[in-house]
Amino acid sequence: MENNSNFSTYFNKTSKAFNLEYFLLFTLLFSITACTSKNYEEPKIALDQYYIEKGFALHVAASEPFIEAPVTMDFDNKGRMWVVEMKGYMQNLAGTGDHIPNGTITILEDLDQDGVADHSKIFMDSLVLPRAIAHVYGGLLYAEPPNLWFVDIQNDKPVNKVLVDSLYSDGGNVEHQPNGLMMHLDNWIYNAKSNFRYQLKNNQWIKAPTTFRGQWGITKDNFGRLYYNTNSRQLLGDYVLPNTVVKNEFYKPKSLLNKILTENQRVYPLHPTAVNRGYQKGVLDADSLLINVTSACGPLIYRGDKFPEDYLENAFICAPEANVVKRNVLNVEADKVTAEQAIPNKEFISSTDEGFRPVNLFNGPDGNMYVVDMHRGIIQDKAFLTPYLQKLYAKKQLDTIIGMGRILKVTHTSSKQDAFINVEEQSVSKLVDLLKHKNGWIRDRAQQVLIQKNEPKSIPLLKKILHDETSSAVSKLHALYILDGINTLSYEVLEKVLYSEQSANVISHAILLMEQFSSQDRTMSIAKIVKHLALKNNPTIDLYVLSALGDWMAFSKDLLFPLVQQLSLRYKDQISYQEAFITSLRGHEESYKAFLGETLKATEHNVIAKILNTTISNKAKNKQNKIFTTKKAQVDNRIAGYNIFRNLCATCHGVEGEGIESLAPPLQNSEYVTESSERLALVILHGLSGPIHVNGDLYELNIAMPGLANNPEFTDKDIHSIIQYLRNAFPGKSKNISIDKIKSLREQKPIDGLGFTEEELLKVK
């Protein structure tokens, strides 16, 4: 209740004038008013240290105390922000407390509708380092390592919790665990740092292999290509639609997936920032400014309707280590995508506030762009934190920037705010109309709601969009995948689209969707369609035709081989088209090779010959593309090494390698760590007996360090992981060492068999 001190004073002075009736009535009215009043006081956050590209404005949409350490977000159908708060991440220089269940998923509300969150409510708490959410299927999908969960939402509370995947992020750490959870145009949910995708079909969760993509954050364009990045590569992506060229399990395509879209990794911070390896040559310039990105994350293809037209489908990228958000312009071709810096030597958003940590970007229901600012001083995970950066963090007191977090909104000064569209409240016909909306967020959510509703009366309206020449290509794509999502797409509908449609993008999707309807009685029909599409001589269409015939081959090899041979010859020297074709040949490589016969040896066939022979050889060896054999997320060996170090080595050497008096010497600046990986491996394997010198100081300890060579719990891979972590944590001149070398060093034992001495080790280079 709100305290009304003015009323209290007035009442005290005049209480004798009130009779009992008026007193009771007035008290009742006051109680109702006070208890229903809302506090709209919003924190004031200054942005005078922030700079944004001309014509744009930056606003605080939410901040502390309503949120802390946000890492991602999503909007619900009512337009409210749902924020994932990773409060346990790097709360101090030692990185302790990351196991504490203090993470939350918070709903932010703007009750006075002024564009700034003024209330918050906890949807879910007691989470350990949560990392991703998505509003899908009328509920919420969320990731809390190692699990992926789905819950229904009832009165803003989670109900009916279902485990989707117990191995979603099994192992690893925050920087190297799956995240993203982005519902795509094709009705699959894709992730970064993962080679799996998910879908709820007929009340069953499906987990299927897909291409491994990126590190932190994932996004899409209107056509459906996926974009992502890694720490040191600001923008990566697939040149083609997901899962179109990976259906042949014995061939791994290289020309169309996981491509670096720009060689320019330059970043332009406004001030010297704390980065992990600033001491290395080429990391900082003469003014101590970061040269290239080292923590790129959270990419976004802008698909809203509030920026000028030339910003549509620009790629925006977070670089939290430099306190900037970058902007790149995309150039899209049939089988290639490239990107270039939008404005030379200048970032879209930049700040001198070293607490500004943009980690994710999102399109909003209002057509604007939203920036998730973790606003945390320490962003380098402890497993990869070098002593150099740790000291720099301490010097700058960045460990004191904690307990904060912001969501920033980017608007264009010329745009006007439209009335909010509550997707949940729309009729079926209105939802279908929303597929034509210029804001991609609205279209995406309308697609989901229509699939969820599964109303038969939507079918004729969707087909009308498909066959209406005035409908945009992008609205037709949504219509196709809604029909597919509600199991009402048919061969006949697609056949009509393929003969009548003019848009290469729509045709490309339609031919891919056609594959599921392959049958013996349609072989003549599909052959005619392939001939018809080939006459268009369109590189985009040809690429998808070549990749979309796999399920038809079993029924119509004799008809299709001559047709695809002609199509393949159009692009005889382009590996991208031949790699697209090999996905259609799955299981029929030998037959096609026999069909080509002697012509396979001709010069014009050498690209396809190489791919064919590679695939046939892989099949004979049962050598599959790893996406079909990997069962869980891949773990960086430095993380595994860190975990072993914390549980085993830190007991004597200290958590930060500082050494413990009378127990073990320091690892920091130790020549046993920094000068030779082979020397370090021998110590870990066979132990060490003193006295020894470390960095000029003599350590005469009575305790010998035991080796791990005879401990069956530690494999050569474990030893390798420990060394990789130590080389990262305490860098020096030591070089990488192979697991095979570690295996051989097991036989190189100390003279007395009790542990290497300093004299013996110094002979090892």
TrEMBL record:
Gene3D superfamilies, per the entry: Cytochrome c-like domain, Leucine-rich Repeat Variant, TolB, C-terminal domain
An example Gene Ontology molecular-function term: electron transfer activity
Pfam families: Cytochrom_C, DUF7133
Residue ranges of domain Cytochrome c in the record: 636-730
UniProt-listed InterPro entries: 6-blade_b-propeller_TolB-like, ARM-like, ARM-type_fold, Cyt_c-like_dom, Cyt_c-like_dom_sf, DUF7133
GTP-binding among keywords: no
Highest taxon above the source species: Bacteria
UniProt key word Signal: no
Protein name listed in UniProt: C-type cytochrome
PROSITE patterns on file: CYTC
Organism: Algibacter amylolyticus
Entry keywords, A to Z: Heme, Iron, Metal-binding
